[in-house]
Amino acid sequence: MTSHHTAFGAALAAVLLVLASGATAVAVDPSPLPTKGRTTIEADKQLNVGSAAQTVHVVWGFSDPAVDLPAPADLTLVIDARGLAGIARVVVADPRCTAHGRVFSCANQDTSQPTNLDFTVQAKTGAALGATGTILYTASAGRGTHATARAKVIVGIPELVVGKVPAMTHVSPGSRIRLPLRLRNTGDLATDRRVVLRWESAGGLAFDRKFSNCGYSVGSDLVAPDGRTSVTCVFKAPVAAGATVELSSPLTATVGEHVMTSVTHYWVEFLKPGERPGTGPEPGTGPALTLVPASGAGDGFERGTQGQVGVSADNSADLAATATAKRAAGAGEWTLALDAVNHGPASVYGTDHESVAVVDVVLPKHTVATDYRHAESEDSVYGPCLLRNGDTGTAPFEAGHRRYVCTVPYGIAVGGSQEFGLSVKTDKDYDGAKGTVTVRPGPAGIPLHDPHTSNDTVTFTFGTQPATGTDHTALVTTAAIGAALLAGTILVLRRRRRSR
Description:
By secondary structure, the protein is mainly β. Helix content is 5%, strand content 44%.
């Protein structure tokens, strides 16, 4: 008898023994695989409606986290608006939907159709402010489980606008400033959700962390100015329709020693039911900041939910130019490395994506640029080099010219630099003439109060091809950095570059 037959016989004998003894044999099968996925619905849990129709966005779909079930072709959503009788009107214009009175049945026929739709809700004429009703959503997806969700509909809309905060000028570095703020409810209904106020400052303001219902954070975005900070505060008390409120105590912040210009953006928003405010990693430790009835006339209000305030400090920034030429592979080909260096004491950052500084390049006669490279960080792209058009105009980069301008849109921190590179071609008539590189304020219009203008401009030349084939660097002259350059510490392009 084979081993297979032996094993089978032993198993059969064991079963017969169990049956002969009168015991009950229990077959243990593996757990069956799930046969149903999960249907999901994503929709706002609360809707405030007024006389104008507003759009509502709903997403429904099929989730299969445990088993590898195929995506179902038949996805359906039912919008049941019978709970809005006398309160609001629902209009569903999607061609996938069919109306049955106040009930709308929407169906997908294949997996290529989107699993979202928009419809509108509008308060009925004569509906009382504060009246409420309910929309019921029911979704199904093939063999998936059914899903339901509800949206509370409220007649009336609270609308908060933020007050204007006047700009502050001639502020001393190291001083503390106050940032008051007002809110006005221009809607027809009191706020019934948590109110969130956020401040985000770029340029070196350090906020005092003294309110327990506020979170404070410092950003690490390489594009952003030095000292990017934010404050997020949550308020639970309602703001009545037509009321104007202000902070029970203004925010206070210290102006950093490297600040020249700083901009603080602020805005107000409502938290959805169940939503986390994301207040920041470090909560305040003092008393809670509250909203209190406003006193005095104030400085007016913005037209919407956001505004900004600028702070200008009595500070200066010493921007300097450097230039280094190195022979490239081809005959008469060179790479001209350019830097705009900030020796401080202030960082220079723009607020509206305008260039805070530009680097003007004038190549010598009998030379032209053929391409350019510019340094970029891992998560941002700096400004390009452009063709200089006239004394102040620019045009997209074009090879074959002598005058170019490279832009610095985001800014330069103290001790930092913005680097560019031009590919240059000399012709047979080039005789060693000098070119110039000049760094100057950009169209952002930030006054630098540069204390050392002598290093704003440097000159350079392209050498001749040595018989040995070794590289020659350009001659660079500037009063402030000449000694350093002669010592062999010329700045070169260090960061990742991209060719254009």
